[in-house]
Amino acid sequence: MAVNLQKGQKISLEKSGGGKLEQFCVGCNWGAITTSGFLGIGSKTQDVDLDLSCVMYNAAGQLCDHLYSPLYREKFLAGYGLKPGKLDSYDGALRHTGDDRSGDTDGDDGLDNEIITVDLKRVSSDVRQIFFFLNNCGKEDFSQIPYASIRMFEGTPDRVKDVFAAYNVSAEAAYKGMTAVVMGELYLHDGEWKFNAIGDAYPHENLGVTIQHISQHYVRK
Length: 221
What we know:
Elements: E1 3-4, E2 10-11, E3 23-29, E4 33-36, E5 43-46, E6 50-58, E7 63-67, H1 74-78, E8 94-96, E9 114-119, E10 127-136, E11 149-156, E12 159-167, E13 180-189, E14 192-202, H2 207-217
Parallel strand pairs: 1-12
Antiparallel strand pairs: 2-14, 3-9, 3-11, 4-5, 6-7, 6-10, 8-9, 10-13, 11-12, 13-14
């Protein structure tokens, strides 16, 4: 049974059937916004562009790798001291399925729109913390976006086998008015990977601000 993540909660990566959760997906699901026309006649669909990303830090607290959309302008990223976006970690342990700029337009299909696959066995020995976070590239806040949620699950981008833990973002009252959420971190402790559910939401205007915030407030140095 999936854990409904609570802010500050630390969860073990032990699977219910035994063994460690080492290969899994972190996914984000959401729908486009549908509004009724004048006097309820017709409807209009508005695309919603959420971005699921992650950043990795070494033991010195330095940003050493990242996964975020290659569609971000390099000039914008350089203004925050960030490198161009990419979909694969340098060690090949984490992979992003790519940027979805609309959300589900025909209702919830049960699959996530953006997914980062994780293979903890392949993570570079330099990496000590991995943060997962979500930004809205539009003007809506999370409460306005249909069934916006983040989850960790065993399976593949096309097949969910077992949901391990989840945030129901659109249903959280604390996320109203917010456009960014730091989901949580994978961190290495005594040679084992553990997960800390951060669950903090902010009215950040973009990905660059969120990464700066993570570096300043969550990274162990």
